[in-house]
């Protein structure tokens, strides 16, 4: 069973999505990821977007560690139900509604975003069968909604090719954890 690792809701057990269609991030990878994000000082008071949220474990971890608002985006019915349960657990512990769940396809959610929708941290853990071309399209749609200094984290199989980063977004780090690989990207600095 997964749990919230640290922060105000640390130790709370999280529900998992039943079946095998959703691949949860292991606690080992989650702990390493959030140690790095803490070092980047990107979580406190952040506006966080968790795309392909699954159970919402990455997003609720962000909320526990001080994110201001967390949006979980998931299209699978079972995963949305579990995300809502986990979000409710964290919101009750934090005593204010920090985590919101959106039952939509990632592409639909981003297409509906307005210019004022800006995120400081974006967590993406798409199903492995999602093709890199589709990911590049999602990243391209995301770029105008990244706040200055934002961090985008993409989790994939270590056997997956690195995605093609669209204009306006560049990779600055990557880390492999067994079968999992994380890529870290940030808004590109415009050439003067």
TrEMBL record:
Keyword annotations from UniProtKB, A to Z: Methyltransferase, Transferase
InterPro entries attached to this UniProt entry: DNA_methylase_N6_adenine_CS (IPR002052), RNA_MeTrfase_RsmD (IPR004398), SAM-dependent_MTases_sf (IPR029063)
EC class: transferase
E.C. designation(s): 2.1.1.171
Alphabetized GO MF terms: 16S rRNA (guanine(966)-N(2))-methyltransferase activity
UniProt keyword Methyltransferase, yes or no: yes
Coiled coil (UniProt feature): none
Keyword Transmembrane: no
Domain of life: Bacteria
Xref: PANTHER family: METHYLTRANSFERASE
Name of the protein in question: 16S rRNA (Guanine(966)-N(2))-methyltransferase RsmD
Lineage: Bacteria, Bacillati, Actinomycetota, Actinomycetes, Micrococcales
Gene designation per UniProt: rsmD
